[in-house]
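W.,

You were right to be curious about this one. When I first looked at the sequence I had no strong expectations either way, so I just let the prediction run and decided to look at it fresh. Below is the sequence, 306 residues in total, followed by the output.
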Amino acid sequence: MSGLRVLTPGPLSLLQDGGRHGWQHLGVSPAGALDLHAAAWANRLLDNPWGTPLLEIALGYLELQSELDTWLALTGAQVAATVDGAPLPPWSRFPLRAGQRLKLGYARSGQRAYLAVAGGFRAPPLLGSVSTQQREGVGGLQGTGEPLRAGDLLPCLAAELRRALSVPWPYQPDYRAPVCLRVIGSGDTAGLASDQLQAFFARSWRLSSQSDRMGARLLGEPLVAPTQQWSQGVGRGAIQLPPDGQPIILQADHQTMGGYPILGWLHPLDQARLAQCPAHHQLRFSPVDLGDAQAELRAFYRFFGR
């Protein structure tokens, strides 16, 4: 099969899809795209089904050369994208013909760009998904959890010509705007002093440079953490409170068990915004009703055909 040849892989470019679900009882995290919003738009621009495999590109600096005529879509972080030197509009789909080169510059806003191809990138699924999970060594092109390397071939199919199309500007996020993330309450807050929970919402936090696809660490005036003596299953969006009082928000590559108390759960749609925040970015939090969060998520899934 032909496809796109990787000339420059960038700092961290990973093959992702909708995630590896149904295996947490065996200690396997879901993985999948960190920014569900940008990934969903990239696939929608090409009429790909929900969760079709695409690339998650951290910080940009990716260069590919096509070996066939196809169509791509690029969303997420604001990167200077060109085809053979000609600039591309943001959040759009565009043709890439055999022999042409797609080049992405450094991310000027946001952290992760998403590149989809018509029909999706082809790789052998492992446990029902091609999502790359580096820590566990699963997924990706070879199934061993490795990021893209120079010389790799991203298999895909040729696609018929179609007209160019962009996401309407009201749906393109401003990653430089102040961030207030919504939190669904947790049963563990019963063991947390009420003034400490209020302090979590009242204080401003910074995103630690030690954050990654497993967890987003917050820095700020420490909270007083209650003692928890048991481990429990955890999922993406859980806000853990370790003994040092600095919260950790679990992300797509999270562990499947945890013993720290849980402050609450980040709104699933706000996880996408968190994925685009750079280190030291200021974050604020506000409570949200569970029913309201569920209604918004259902509407999101209906729009993107999940």
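Here's what jumped out at me. The chain has two domains: 3-171, 179-303. And, maybe more interesting for your project: The mean pLDDT is 93.

Coffee later to discuss?

I.
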